[in-house]
Write a structure and sequence with these properties.
The complex is a heterodimer. Chain A is an alpha/beta fold. Chain A has helices at residues 2-7, 32-48, 52-66, 76-82, 101-114, 128-140, 150-155, 157-165, 180-193, 211-219, 221-234, 249-255, 284-287, 325-332, 343-357, 363-375, 397-403; strands spanning 21-22, 25-29, 72-74, 86-91, 119-124, 143-149, 169-173, 198-201, 240-244, 265-273, 289-293, 295-300, 337-342, 384-389. Chain A has a six-stranded mixed sheet, with helices on both faces. The radius of gyration of chain A is 20 Å and the shape is globular. Chain B has helices at residues 3-14, 33-42, 62-73, 78-89, 103-109, 111-121, 133-145, 160-169, 190-201, 217-224, 234-242, 247-267, and strands spanning 18-24, 48-51, 97-101, 125-128, 149-154, 174-177, 208-211, 229-232. Classes of the chains: A alpha/beta, B alpha/beta.
């Protein structure tokens, strides 16, 4: 994989192009009614992305409100037990609100404020992005509406209550499969109707341009820190990166600063659910094919007629039939490798980390951990893996208990 | 000449405006779609917009979302929509048919296969809601080469530059979305629409259709005063859903609604242009 990347040198700083294309992926596939709003957002984003005052305010918020930088923790005991590479956890679970999602919402909120918007809307699957959105809205005194599939509302009651405590209006979405993709449809419909005063905070590196690049830039702080921490603690870059991929924002956030380091192997881990062969999964890059949904061209899980199909994963945050367009492109050019682990494997990863390192991981992140248990033993003890521990698992304990037949 | 261009030329000579009903193919039952299309023509429709059901209709309100869900649950697909158009064409060689839908089913079929299939079936225009002009060349060019009009949306927010660019790529007519929102939203403001259409006419000679928010004969008549075509969708689709179990009543009542709009549009007489 790395050898292939070396044979095809790509300057990753040149992507996406001005219209948001990563190779054939990305772009802007929305109704005309949203095009001007996207142009306005792109103009604002381009005006502020390098503005020293904006960046200073963002850095201050990340330091004092979010709690960055997050530690890079050497999981010594787990590394020893697996008997291979040294495993380092990028502790995004220690951020305010318990996941990487807030890196993005803090950034988009600063942009919304500068654009004079008074109302924030967001979609959410597991509820982490919804909580992160409701959090920044509370802090700015802005109205916040979060769209959430009615199925997910059932699965994530704790986060629903957190959002309501924070003052957000959680709108159940009952159309389609009643999960994240339908919440995204409904948020887009709200945006098109209330475009004058409303800022749409997309929670992942998907959607129409400029969302994939904008969210990547806000999440890239993860990889920038991890790179510096590896260099200062060990004087070298890691040999491999591992992150879970639903829409793919925590993964792009970790990967981006390492894309030009062709000696660093990159692994994105998708949700194989009950197993790819059962059809009950959410492994878009491993088992899907290119198409157009939610404003961008990317890999999708769709049937032979181009209808989007329902996905399954034990983790609501990975339960999405699309994926960020940059991941689609990284897969095609061979810079990153995408694999999938099942619900059962992820649950073993969840328990392993909890019992061996005393850290309860989110079920999403547990997919990355499960792949590490396969990868680390194939590597030498003098090699290093950085895995993104994208969120903490408090929100998932009801799900895990229920799977084990325990009533809390 | 394409059937759409001929239709607008004929109407212009007669001093009339086009009435374009929209229905979702396969809703409420696949077997009712072709009889419904014929009934719409008899009631005074000039062009037919046939919706291609999609699992994720992002620009549509609840009425058309539910229509899509009903149609998909009965096995509708782009391939079957093309079969319905072919069947319609066996007894109507004149009325233009425009497919309206989302890009993914077309991508999934493949652009070349789709264009060939649409041409063979007798499709006259294709409006892909989530395909703005910037991304459209790859589909618009083969459509044009096959004599099928690529039709595009314009919005209240479209800038003069975008209108000019869109008009260059489009054929058939331009579809002006008369309000901010999804299909089936609140009623439109005719004065605002008139203003905006005047601005668009300064930039293009293509006929202008107006849709989203036209629910009744008075609104249809008022819009016909300023536009070349009036598109009505959710108001019909909602009633079709309600009468799903009584097909005869459904065909009769929906045709009556379209007939009432037709009459109101014609009664208000030729517009000023």
């Amino acid at each position: 994989m790395t050898a292939k990347a070396l044979r095809n040198p790509v300057d990753f700083s040149q992507f996406p192009d001005r219209a948001g294309h990563f190779g054939r992926y990305g772009g802007r596939f929305v109704a005309e009614t949203l095009m001007e709003a996207l142009h306005d957002l792109d103009d604002a984003w381009r005006a502020y992305r390098n503005d020293p005052e904006f960046l200073a305010e963002l850095d201050a918020d990340l330091a004092r409100y979010v709690g960055r930088p997050t530690p890079l923790y050497h999981a010594e005991r787990w590394s020893r037990q697996l008997g291979g590479a040294q495993i380092h956890l990028k502790r995004e679970d220690l951020n305010h609100t318990g996941a990487h999602k807030i890196n993005n919402t803090v950034g988009q909120a600063l942009l919304a404020k500068r654009m004079g918007k008074t109302r924030l809307i967001a979609e959410t699957g597991a509820g982490q992005h919804g909580v992160a959105s409701a959090t920044v809205a509370a802090r700015l005194g802005m109205e916040c509406v979060v769209y959430m599939g009615s199925e997910d509302i059932q699965r994530q009651a704790l986060n629903v209550y957190r959002m309501r405590l924070l003052g957000a209006n959680v709108q159940p979405v009952t159309s389609g499969s009643r999960t994240l993709k339908d919440a995204l449809n409904e948020a887009l419909r709200d945006w098109v109707t209330n475009v004058d005063n409303t800022f749409y905070m997309i929670g992942t590196v998907a959607g129409p341009h400029p969302y994939p690049v904008m969210v990547r830039e806000f999440q890239a702080v993860i990889g920038r820190e991890a790179r510096e921490q590896m260099l200062s603690d060990y004087g070298r870059l890691p040999d491999a990166l591992v992150a879970c991929v639903g829409g793919g924002s925590n993964a792009i956030g970790l990967f981006h600063s390492f894309l030009n380091d062709s000696e660093v192997a990159i692994y994105g881990v998708e949700a194989a659910g009950s197993g790819i062969e059962t059809g009950r999964h959410a492994a878009t890059l491993c088992a899907g094919r290119p198409g157009v949904l939610h404003g961008n061209r990317t890999y999708l899980l769709n049937d032979a007629n181009g209808q989007i199909i329902e996905t399954h994963s034990v983790s609501a945050g990975l339960d999405y039939p699309g994926v960020g367009p940059e991941h689609a492109w990284l897969k095609d050019i061979g810079r990153a490798r995408y694999v999938a682990v099942t619900d059962d494997e992820a649950l073993r990863g969840f328990h392993d980390l909890t019992r061996i390192e005393g850290i309860i991981p989110a079920l999403e992140s547990s997919h990355a951990l499960a792949y590490v248990t396969q990868l680390a033993p194939t590597m030498r003890p003098d090699q290093h893996i950085v895995v993104n521990l994208s969120g903490r698992g408090d929100k998932d304990i009801y799900t895990v208990a229920k799977l084990e037949g325990i009533q809390l | 000449m394409n059937r759409i261009a001929r239709c607008f030329a004929d109407l212009r000579r007669a001093g009339r405006k086009a009435l374009i009903p929209y229905i979702t193919a396969g809703d409420p039952r696949p077997a009712l779609t072709v009889p419904m299309l014929h009934a719409l023509v008899r009631a005074g429709a000039n062009i037919l917009e046939l919706g291609v059901p999609f699992s994720d209709p992002m620009a549509d309100g609840p009425v058309i979302q539910k229509a899509c869900e009903r149609a998909l649950a009965q096995g509708m697909s782009l391939r079957r929509v093309l079969e319905q158009v072919r069947e319609f064409r066996q007894t109507d060689a004149e009325t233009p048919v425009v497919l309206m839908g989302y890009l993914n089913p077309i991508e999934s079929m493949g652009y070349d296969t789709f264009v060939a299939g649409a041409r063979a079936a007798g499709v006259d225009g294709v409006l892909t809601v989530d395909l703005p002009p910037e991304e459209a060349a790859e589909l618009a060019e083969p459509l044009k080469a096959a004599g099928i009009a690529p039709i595009f949306l314009l919005a209240p927010t479209s800038s003069a530059e975008r209108i000019r660019h869109t008009a260059k790529l489009a054929q058939g007519y331009l579809y002006y979305v008369s309000l901010k929102g999804v299909t089936g939203s609140a009623a439109l403001n005719v004065a605002e629409v008139a203003d905006k259409l005047a601005g668009i006419r300064a930039l293009t000679d293509l006929p202008l259709g107006v849709g989203f928010g036209i629910k009744d004969p008075p609104t249809a008549a008022a819009v016909a005063q300023v536009a070349d075509a009036v598109v009505v969708g959710s108001a019909l689709v909602a009633r079709m859903g309600e009468l799903a179990d009584d097909p005869d009543q459904m065909l009769r009542e929906v045709a009556e609604r379209v007939g009432a709009m037709r009459e109101a549009m014609d009664r208000s007489g030729p517009a000023k242009d």
